[in-house]
Specification:
Serine Threonine Protein Phosphatase 5, Tetratricopeptide repeat, 2 domains, eight-stranded antiparallel β-sheet, 44% helix, 27% strand
Length: 246
């Protein structure tokens, strides 16, 4: 009996130690990442001023991701991040994409803060999107911490192949990683609507055009209670905008 009790105590102690180590490890990695937010911004500006826009994008994307992540974990991050800081970071990414001639990527980054005056101004500077009859390409929807959910469309014979990759980022998701979900379905080339079913899950994809925002897919999932075989809290519903062709 004594040996069993001692074993249980040792096990509880080991679990407690592992939990404490995980907490310490997360806080350390968080603070190291958050300490780099200003560095990302400065490096991005440097590359932008040098007209090295692809390098600027990478730095500004890291700035945007970590700025929001550090704000969400403010008590442990060691820095203060305002909503305006995140808005500036998102617009920095958009401006860099615009310089690269990738106006649709620029547009979706500006739309992350669609109600801000800065984003509205920058959106107006972009040329009207080109609408193609070809639906092939990459469509995205904004996710947390500067990340995206994706729908990729390719053509095979007389059908479009449709692949969804979605994520859910918990409050510690940028370090611990997201929950994930995928599905695939097909649609005739002449159609504008696709469907996906899995047990009690139903997802409808409606392809449409917006003269100001470009090609898009309106996705409706029958309800948030159905997991659709996805990871916890991954949800497909929402508006996905086309950012790349083929």
């Amino acid at each position: 009996m004594m040996r069993t009790t001692q074993l249980c105590l040792m096990l509880i102690t080991a679990i407690g130690s592992a939990s404490t180590f995980a907490e310490d490890s997360f806080e350390q990695e968080l603070q190291q990442g958050c300490a780099k937010v200003k560095q990302y911004a400065q490096a991005g500006k440097k590359f932008y001023d040098q007209k090295q826009y692809a390098k600027a994008v990478k730095q500004f994307e890291d700035q945007a991701a970590w700025a929001q992540f550090c704000q969400m974990n403010a008590e442990e991050s060691g820095i203060q991040v305002t909503d305006q800081d995140i808005e500036i970071a998102n617009n920095n990414v958009g401006l860099s994409y615009a310089k690269l001639g990738k106006s649709q990527w620029a547009r979706v980054w500006f739309l992350r803060d669609k109600d801000s005056k800065t984003s509205q101004y920058n959106l107006k500077q972009l040329a009207k999107p080109q609408i193609s009859k070809d639906l092939q390409g990459t469509y995205v929807r904004a996710n947390g911490f500067g990340q995206w959910d994706y729908i990729k469309i390719s053509k095979k014979q007389n059908k479009y192949q449709i692949a969804f990759d979605g994520y859910y980022f918990g409050i510690r998701g940028l370090i611990y990683g997201p929950n994930m979900g995928q599905f695939e379905t097909t649609m005739l080339i002449t159609a504008k609507q696709a469907n996906y079913r899995y047990e009690d899950c139903q997802i409808k994809l409606q392809f449409a055009n917006d003269p100001n925002l470009g090609q898009k897919i309106e996705v409706k999932q029958n309800n948030s209670e159905s997991s659709c075989g996805f990871g916890h809290n991954v949800y497909a519903g929402g508006t996905f905008y086309k950012v790349e062709s083929k």
